[in-house]
């Protein structure tokens, strides 16, 4: 019904805080789902020597080299990781429901599509519904 409108509107904007992905990259729910899967798990990286922790692995590795004076050739980078959060079991940022892992992407897409359609003039929507 409205699929061609969604491919023109590009309603799929990443909901993950700090993600700078271009919404123009996602022409379909499928493309958006692939992107969201890259955010499925947010990792927390930790220096085992002092418990310095960060979501960015490179920052923790830099910390280890600087704070614990390791050479870049050293294989002694003592780092651990654990899942900080799984976005597929988070609250929906639009309605605060917890849709669950199976329906998370579809749930979020539905909200994003509703928002994008609200930006269209009503006449365009009526014309589209009539096959125009």
TrEMBL record:
Residues 12-39, 45-68, 90-111 form the C2H2-type domain. InterPro entries: Znf_C2H2_type. SMART domains: ZnF_C2H2 (SM00355). This is C2H2-type domain-containing protein. It comes from Trichoglossum hirsutum.
């Amino acid at each position: 019904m409205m699929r061609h409108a969604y491919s023109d509107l590009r309603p799929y904007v990443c909901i993950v805080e700090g993600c700078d992905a271009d919404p123009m990259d996602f022409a379909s729910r499928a493309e958006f789902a692939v992107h969201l899967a890259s955010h499925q798990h947010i990792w927390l990286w930790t220096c085992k020597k002092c418990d310095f922790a960060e979501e960015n692995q490179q920052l923790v590795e830099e910390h280890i080299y600087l704070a614990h004076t390791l050479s870049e050739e050293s294989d002694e980078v003592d780092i651990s990781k654990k899942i900080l959060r799984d976005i597929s079991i988070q609250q929906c940022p639009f309605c605060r429901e917890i849709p669950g892992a199976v329906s998370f992407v579809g749930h979020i897409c539905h909200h994003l599509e509703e928002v994008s359609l609200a930006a269209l003039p009503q006449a365009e929507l009526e014309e589209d519904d009539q096959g125009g």
